[in-house]
Design brief:
Blueprint (H helix, E strand, L loop, with lengths): L6 E5 L3 E8 L2 E4 L9 E2 L2 E3 L5 E3 L1 H5 L8 E2 L14 H6 L3 E3 L7 E4 L2 E3 L1 H20 L6 E5 L5 H13 L5 E5 L5 E5 L1 E4 H10 L6 E8 L4 E8 L4 E10 L4 H20 L7 H20 L2 E11 L5 E9 H7 L1 H17 L9 E5 L6 H11 L12 H14 L7 E5 L4 E5 L3 E6 L4 E2 L1 E7 L8 E8 L9 E9 L11 E7 L5 E7 L5 E5 L8 H45 L5 H19 L3 H28 L18 H8 L4
Parallel strand pairs: 1-11, 11-14, 15-20, 17-21
Antiparallel strand pairs: 1-2, 2-3, 2-4, 5-6, 5-7, 8-9, 9-10, 12-13, 15-16, 16-17, 18-19, 21-24, 22-23, 22-26, 25-28, 26-27, 28-29, 29-30
Helix pairs in contact: 3-4, 4-12, 5-11, 6-7, 12-13, 12-14, 13-14
The protein binds adenosine monophosphate.
Adenosine monophosphate binds next to helix 7.
């Protein structure tokens, strides 16, 4: 049996994409609606039904408070960190200032990993339908700037969606090796997709302006095919959403000037405006002017309907967003500086993210690097394509000639005397990485040390982000600076950190895998995973019932139509068994009994078919003998075709 494939998933802020390596080619897998891009949107209808992707996005206008988009902005984040993002979304974000945020819909709380899992599950199912087998392994991408908590939250989402977070694959030497689920940086994946059949020994910049984040990475593809990320930088608060927001604000301001009404107070109007603004922005990548037309957007004080009509030119739009374009420059320069390269030394700039289709963004790249960005690979799909390549390489046991080396996006360290941040693993270190250093006590007879782990670039620990802490106690009394405490920071290939401390005197040891990195315990993840699975069953049942009901109702309609059209050619006695069968189907539908709907529909088919045959035989005899149909459908000669064509009974 062929080994189960590892799929690649770009779990985006705005859109998600799933791809798989098929032979030597990467295939982007269309979703259930037939699209290659799946909007990262989840919605709950007022009937409690769950919608994911395009169906969710489509109803966002009429259901703004139960429609969750940009959930990626909330992954693994605490309330005090997301004040900006919270303002951008119409759904309710809850949680204490230092607590991980949750989304509240109709009084029910959902964690961001749970919501992301719904998107992942949809992609998983699309891949399963495409491949024809169960898929439990995936490579998922995250922005380079995702911290440990955000990465861990992504892994949790995958677990809830039913992916294995640890699995066994055959290594290069044929041995089975345990592999932790791979989370790779989006720009790394993009460069990998680009480099698949390109020449080696190049410096590549990956310029990724997506829906919610901006990432810039500088990579080096060596002669030996080894792929090294030299530096990464970016802005987690800059993306297509911000461009949409600027345009929405402009339109709302203009509308207010014209009509004195603030559309911002009307969530329904704002949702419509959001969709229109995004479309206008995209259109302006192709054309130089765009008309925005939103009839009946609101009503005036006298309840007269008001329409929004506006023309926007590309140059007008470019002026409006120039400050956002400007904001891309600094991270690019910082990344180049970290990689110790000048813009001219970059051989290729790979463009990633839908926003790089905007001409002004392309112009910016040319201004910075002195050359056009490379757009050979579809900017919406390139990340998923890279993830799929990485997935295939894992299966090959890294036998392929491209190796991937990722870097840490932020420095990791611990607090030492005086609140100083002592860096153990500096940012832009190639991972996996293990660093061990010896520390000691600050005061005489100090019985314990507290290891407080921080992430960030500021010299004082308190200014950085605390990501975990633990105590190592039982240190025997000794003068200060005598005990030797060995601290180890180990960051795995996914950028997930483990920290341990060992008292070399007693051999006593303490360790954490950054506790509560995503705020979800193993049990919680397991519970959510089970719930999601339960839900999947329920969703499947709902869908099956809806299909059966639709089928039954359309058959009833057709059969009733046939009966009516036949008029008195069919006697009441002939109709009786059919009417009885119809009642039975309707009753089963009312009882929501899927199995009963199916059997009753089959019985109805039989009754109708029997009657049709009976009817035909009577027509053939030119007489109208009494007596009901026999239910005998065994007679299969000539007339079948005619019955089909006239009454559509036998399909
Ligand atoms: P991504 O996160 O890569 O899916 O990027 C999605 C972002 O790209 C969204 O903000 C889209 O509105 C934007 N986008 C997609 N197509 C275009 C286009 N033709 N011109 C400008 N922006 C676009």
């Amino acid at each position: 049996m062929a080994e189960e494939k590892i799929i690649g998933i770009d779990l985006g802020t705005t859109n998600s994409v799933v791809a798989v390596m098929d032979g030597t080619e990467v295939k982007v897998i269309p979703n259930q609606e037939g699209s290659r891009l799946t909007p990262s949107v989840v919605a709950f209808t007022d009937k409690g039904e769950r919608l994911v992707g395009e169906p969710a996005k489509r109803q966002a206008i009429t259901n703004p408070r139960r429609t969750i988009y940009s959930i990626k902005r909330f992954m693994g984040r605490r309330h005090n960190e997301v004040e900006e993002e919270e303002k951008l979304v119409p759904y309710k974000i809850v949680g204490g200032p230092n607590e991980l945020v949750k989304v509240e819909i109709d009084g029910k709380l959902y964690t961001p990993p749970e919501i992301s899992a719904m998107i992942l599950r949809k992609l998983k199912e699309a891949a399963e339908a495409y491949l024809g087998h169960t898929v439990r392994k995936a490579v998922i991408t995250v922005p380079a700037y995702f911290n440990d908590a955000q990465r861990q939250a992504t892994i949790d989402a995958a677990a809830i969606a039913g992916f294995d977070t640890e699995y066994e694959i055959r290594g290069k030497d044929g041995k089975i090796v345990k592999q932790r689920m791979r989370i790779i940086n989006e720009p790394t994946a993009a460069a990998l997709a680009y480099a698949l059949d390109k020449k080696k020994d190049q410096k590549i910049a990956v310029f990724d302006l997506g829906g919610g984040t901006f990432d810039i990475s500088i990579l080096d593809v060596g002669e030996d095919g080894v792929f090294q990320v030299k530096s990464t930088n970016g802005d987690t608060h800059l993306g297509g959403d911000d461009f949409d927001q600027v345009l929405m604000d402009y339109i709302a301001d203009e509308f207010k000037k014209q009509h004195g009404i603030d559309l911002r107070k009307d969530p329904m109007a704002m949702q419509r405006l959001k969709v229109a603004a995004e479309q206008a922005k995209k259109d302006l990548s192709q054309q130089t002017t765009v008309d925005i037309n939103l009839p009946f957007i609101t009503a005036d004080a006298d309840r007269n309907p008001l329409h929004l009509m506006m023309t926007i030119t590309r140059s007008q739009f470019e002026r409006m967003v120039e400050h956002l374009i400007e904001r891309c420059k600094k991270p690019v320069m910082a990344a180049l500086k970290d990689a110790k390269l000048t813009p001219q030394q970059i051989d290729e700039v790979v463009m990633v993210g839908g926003m790089t289709r905007m001409p002004r963004v392309q112009q910016l790249v040319k201004e910075i690097f002195g050359k056009d960005g490379h757009r050979g690979v579809n900017p919406d799909e390139v990340v998923a394509v890279g993830a799929a390549i990485q997935g295939a390489q894992l299966l090959l046991g890294a036998a392929a000639d491209i190796q991937l080396l990722d870097v840490t996006p932020l420095s990791l360290g611990l607090e030492t005397l005086g609140g100083v941040m002592t860096v153990m693993i500096p940012r832009n270190t190639t991972i996996p990485k293990k660093v061990t250093e010896i520390f000691t006590t600050a005061v005489d007879n100090q019985p314990s040390v507290e290891v407080q782990v921080f992430q960030g670039e500021r010299p004082m620990a308190a200014d950085n982000k605390k990501i975990g802490s633990f105590h190592l106690d039982g240190i025997p009394p000794a003068p200060r600076q005598v005990p030797k405490i060995e601290v180890t920071f180990e960051i795995d290939a996914n950028g997930v950190l483990s920290v341990s401390a060992k008292d070399l005197g007693t051999g006593k040891q303490q360790q954490i895998r950054i506790e509560g990195a995503s705020g979800l315990s193993k049990e919680e993840v397991e519970r959510m995973r089970r719930e999601a699975e339960l839900h999947a069953e329920e969703d499947k049942r709902k869908r099956e019932f809806a299909d059966a009901k639709n089928n039954a109702e359309s058959r009833i309609y057709q059969i009733e139509k046939m009966l009516n059209e036949a008029g008195d050619k069919i006697t009441e006695a002939d109709k009786a068994p059919i009417n009885a069968a119809i009642s039975k189907v309707k009753d089963a539908i009312n009882r929501h009994d899927l199995a009963a709907v199916k059997t009753a529909t089959a019985e109805l088919e039989q009754a109708a078919s029997a009657m049709a045959q009976h009817l035909y035989s009577k027509v053939g005899q030119g007489a109208t003998p009494s007596g009901g149909p026999t239910g005998d459908t065994g007679k299969k000669d000539g007339p079948d075709d005619v019955i089909d064509a006239e009454y559509e009974v036998k399909k």
